[in-house]
Write a structure and sequence with these properties.
Radius of gyration: 34 Å
Largest sheet: 4 strands, mixed
Distance between the termini: 98 Å
Strand content: 5-15%
Structural class: alpha+beta
Helix content: 40-55%
Amino acid sequence: MAMGPRLELRQSQSLVMTPQLQQAIRLLALSNLELEAVVAEEVENNPLLDSGEERVTLGTDRETDGEASPDPATADDLMAAGHSESDAPLDVDYTADIFHHDSAADSTMGSSASASGEDIDFDSFEGAAATLADHLMAQLGMMLEGSDLAVARVIVDALDDAGYLIESLRDLSNRLDVPLGAVEAILGVVQNCDPTGVGARTLSECLALQAKETDRYDPCMRLLIDNLELLAVGRIAQLQRMCMVDDEDMADMIRELRGYDPKPGCRFGSGRIESVTPDVYVMRGTKGWQVEINTGSLPRVLVDRRYHAELAAGAKDKASKAWVAENLANASWLVKALDQRQRTIVTVATEIVKQQEAFFLHGVAHLRPLVLKTVAEAVGLHESTVSRVTSNKYLSCARGMFELKYFFTSGIASSDGGENASALAVKAAIKTLISTEAADAILSDDTLVDRLKEEGFDLARRTVAKYREAIGLGSSVQRRRSRAIDAKAA
C-alpha cells in the first residue's frame, strides 16, 4: 500500500447539544425554588433581563420627559371639584365578580388578609422552632458553668434526634481528657433536664428515668423495665411470676409503661420545616378536569426591549455590538425556555390526570399501574423528558398534595384476567383488611392472599408479606401478641 498524502471525503452524524438546549433541559428538572435561584442569577448577569417586578415611585419629584408630573388628585380634591364618582373605587364591594378567584392559583398571588386586616396569618412570621439542643442548653446554662458546661455541650451534641446518647462515656472521656466519673456526673445533670428521658443510653434507661420522675420506679416496675424483651414477645405470665404481682397490678404496670415516651427528643424539631408549594393545581370543573400551573410560585422575567435599544444605539465597535446581540439572544432564549417548561409541565400533568382519573374520583384503591413510557408516548415526548418533568414537582388536588412521581407505580396481575392493579392500591387493600380484622381472628398472610384474590388481586404469599412489611404492619403472630398485651392493659 502506497504511503502518501491524499484527500478523502467522509460523511458522519453526531449529536451536539448547544448551551441553550442544555439550559432548557436543566430548567425542566428544577423545582420552582431552584428555578427562582437560577433566574435570579441570570437576571444579575444579563442587563437585558428584567425580573418583571412593579416599580412604585413615591414622592413629588417624579419627572416625565424632563417635566415634573403633577401629584395625583386626592379623594378630598375630587369630591370638592364635584367628581365624587371618581372616588367610588374606595367603596369596594368584595363580593363582586371582579374579586372572584377563577382558580386555586389566583389565591396564592393575592393577600391572605381580609379588608379589615383581621385574618392576617401571624403564624407565618414565627421564627424557627427550638431544637432539642437549644432546649437542653437553656436549662444546663442555669445549672452548670465553666468546664462542666462545656462537657455538657459535648454530651448534648452526642444525642440523636430521639434524645439517646449514641457515644459511649468512655469515648467522651478520652476525647475530652476528662475523668470518666466527671462525665458520668454531668450526664446525670443532663438526664435531669426536660424532657425526662433524654440522655439515656438504652430504652430501658429512658423508661426508668420517666418512672423515677413519676415516683413509680418500685422493685416490680424495675423488673418489668429490665425485661422488656419478655413483654415484647407477650410472656405476661412469666413477667407476673418474676414481679410477683397479680393480673390487676400487671395490667396497671403495663398501662403506666405505655404512657411513657420512648423517644422524648422527637418532640423537638431538628430545624425549620419548609412547606411544599404545589407546581400544578388540578380541579374538577363542569367541563372536566382543569390542570393549570401555579404561576404564583414561578419567577417572572422579561426582556427589557427599551434598554436593549439604548445599548444597541450606543454600541459603536464590533465587540460591543456582538455583546449586546449575545445578551439579547440569551435573554430571549431564557424567556422562551421558561414558557416551554410551563407548557411541558401542564401537558405531562394533564396526561397523568387522564391516566389516573379513577384515583382523583375514588381514591388510592383505584390507582392504576403507570410507567413513564406510557405518558411519554401519549404526549409525544421522550421518557427522559417526562422523568425530568415529574422530578421535584408537586400536584395539588382535592385529595391532597402528591409528587408527580407518586402516580407512577408498578402493576400487579389481576386474578380475573382484567386490568392490572397498582402496587399502591394493593397496599391500601392490605391495610384495610388488617385494620378491620377482629382481635380473635387475626389474618395470616395466607388468609390475606385469599381475601385479596376475592378483591381481584392475584399475589403470592411472599409478595403480600413484602407489602405488609413495607407499610409497617407486623406478622399475624406479632399482631396477635400486641392485641393480647392491649387487652391485658385495658
